[in-house]
Design a protein that fits this description.
This protein has about 375 residues and is mainly β. Helix content is about 0%, strand content about 50%. Strands 10, 11, 12, 13 and 14 form a 5-stranded antiparallel sheet that branches. Strands 15, 16, 17, 18 and 19 form a 5-stranded antiparallel sheet that branches. The termini are close together.
Length: about 375
């Protein structure tokens, strides 16, 4: 695979607030939008606020002065892992995870997660919410609560019912909407930072809405391991021109091994799914997109030397050849022996009308005190 015309730019950087986990889409009107999480401080703690930034030149430059906060954090709550999509009628959708926590008191003045007096105590994910925009993202309606029942909507960790910014909502021909998420049935199971619970591992599943996003209900389980060994996480779903749904997922294996990505497919609009199967690609989490020429592109973070963002193209979205893997960018930042700088990537990808691809991701700066910030890389594939 030949990657050419590579061009990287800074999208948004704030010296006092980390920015991470973006979701990028190409709008029908020609603009490009990126939603991302802005933390309440310099540490990546998944309790910030969902923000939006716009490009009018295919991702070559971004309107930093016009960056807008869609849902501000509060002293006791936040939202993160936002994902964008556009319906056929032009309506924009953004869904995001919601958390609440207890701020430290005089008896709990502990510097949790390096946040100082802003540290969090007893943080829990409390659900999901949806926002809608009828004017290309300039104003938003929401938050609209998202019902995930019977999947638990909260738990003993921020990971109990989650997903990633890559999990765009998919619109079906009948107007139904599918939202790919991950989660567990039991709210009282302990969930570790890799999605591995005591007694239950994470599953990937889909919610469906038939009224434009006002109401959601469980639709199907995409992948689940009843042996409680593999955790299926952070699904990305694309609907191909053939009608087939392709889902690529991050997978972790007990006790704590990062596995290759797995795929499953559905030929009945997500009612049933094929047994998941392992691909040759290592990395996480993925974002999948059908290209204008019909092929399927996956982009994903690569958190091993050399760290960065990689991609691969498949003819059908199911068969992935490692020999076709290519590097989109190498992520730079602080010393890699410090584990904090390992959290790079979380890419999302969009294609411009002229065929140019734009991958969005976060990485650490080269400042004396490195901080996460948002970048994009434009490139062509041949």
């Amino acid at each position: 695979m030949d990657v050419r015309d590579v061009e990287s730019v800074v999208v948004y950087k704030d010296a006092g607030q980390a920015c991470n986990q973006g979701s990028i889409i190409q709008l029908a009107d020609g603009d490009m939008l990126m939603a991302f999480n802005q933390e309440r401080g310099r540490v990546h703690s998944d309790s910030g606020q969902s923000c939006l930034i716009r490009s009018t030149d295919g991702g070559r430059s971004w309107d930093q002065a016009g960056m807008q906060v869609i849902w501000p954090f509060t002293d006791h709550g936040g939202n993160w892992d936002c994902a964008l999509s556009q319906r056929a009628d032009g309506t924009l959708l953004m869904h995001t995870r919601v958390c609440s926590f207890i701020a430290p008191t005089a008896l709990h003045r502990i510097d949790l997660q390096g946040l100082g007096s802003g540290g969090e105590r007893l943080k829990r994910q409390t659900g999901y919410a949806l926002f809608r925009s009828a004017d290309a993202g300039r104003t938003w309606e929401g938050p609209i609560p998202v019902n995930t029942f019977p999947i638990a909507d909260s738990g003993n960790s921020a990971y109990m019912c989650g997903g990633s910014g890559a999990g765009h909502v998919v619109e079906l021909p009948d107007g139904g909407l599918l939202m790919p998420l991950m989660g567990g049935i039991h709210r009282d199971g302990f969930t570790g930072s890799r999605g591995l619970t005591v007694g239950e591992t994470m599953r990937c599943f889909a919610l469906r809405s038939d009224d434009g996003g006002d109401n959601w209900e469980y639709w199907s389980t995409i992948a689940y391991d009843p042996a409680q060994i593999r955790a299926f996480q952070e699904p990305s779903v694309v609907r191909l021109s053939s009608g087939r749904l392709i889902c690529m997922m991050r997978v972790t294996v007990r006790p704590e091994r990062f596995d290759n990505m797995w795929v499953a497919h559905s030929d009945d609009d997500g009612i049933t799914w094929s047994p998941p199967r392992r691909t040759a690609l290592w990395g996480y989490p993925p974002d999948v997109l059908q290209l204008q020429d019909g092929r399927v592109l996956a982009v994903y973070g690569y958190r091993a030397e050399p760290m960065g963002v990689r991609g691969c193209v498949s003819e059908n979205g199911l068969d992935w050849d490692l020999a076709a893997e290519f590097t989109i960018c190498g992520c730079v930042g602080g010393p890699l022996e410090d584990p904090v700088y390992w959290h790079t990537g979380y890419p999302s990808v969009a294609q411009c009308p002229d065929g140019t691809l734009v991958a969005a991701y976060h990485e650490y700066s080269m400042d004396d005190e490195p901080i996460q910030y948002m970048r994009t890389t434009r490139f062509q594939l041949t």
